[in-house]
Design goal:
This protein is α+β, with helices and mostly antiparallel strands and 262 residues long. It folds into 2 domains: 3-117, no CATH class; 128-261, no CATH class. It contains 5 helices and 19 strands. Helix 1 crosses helix 2 (50-58).
Amino acid sequence: MKREIFKQFVEQTLENVIQYAEEKTGKSLSRDIAFGWFYTKESELVRKDIDEYITQRVYIDENNIFPCVDIGVADILNDGTTLIWANVSGHNPRPFEKNWTGRDGPFVYIIGQKLIDKLPVKRMNLPYYLFCSERGTNLYQLKDGRFQIITKGKIVPLMVGSGYALVEVNFAEYLEQLDLPGFDIADAIIYDPAQKVEIRTHRQLKIEQQFSVDMMRDLNLVGEQIFLMNNTYIFVSPQLKKRLEETEFQYLRFRKGLSEFA
């Protein structure tokens, strides 16, 4: 895809995610937009030429486009501006194609919890986002099954990214004995290309129960369950969260619904 056409696609995507949020929330939103990557400070938000700003980050050339970018309305700022956030996954660039949701292009639509919280809607039971207290390196799964380190950073006990979820052995074994539905573990090898060494301290989590953002409020959260959202983020049911909070794995952190994303 030519760069100018992709830039037009980005411009339409910005409108699409606003319409997506309006459809899901029933609230009309301003077309005055501020944009930032996840966790961008308000003082650093981009308010002009947003389509060009996103294109510079996601588009390399006709055959190299980052394939999985979570994007959506995160919040409404105090001045009424619609805040859109996005996050680029660790997948290697590839030609323009459908993403895992079935939509054309790299963008996966999401909605921020702050936006949902501002709406006069009935509170519903929500799963909890599970993450590590430390930020680790990003990984990419090679054709031989190993997980290669692709960014600077350290190996932490829980490492989750687009298409992978690895945890240190003790936690993996603990989860395995819980006999969670749709859950299994497998051996994993982390490959450090800089040191040319293989690391075998982690196991791969295989989570069959998957959902997208718009399915979150329809999940069956009865009992102890584990889920994967957008093939990238681990969520657990309230009952499993309660159990995990009482374990020795002090690096585990929890946020209800999408509150960590906006």
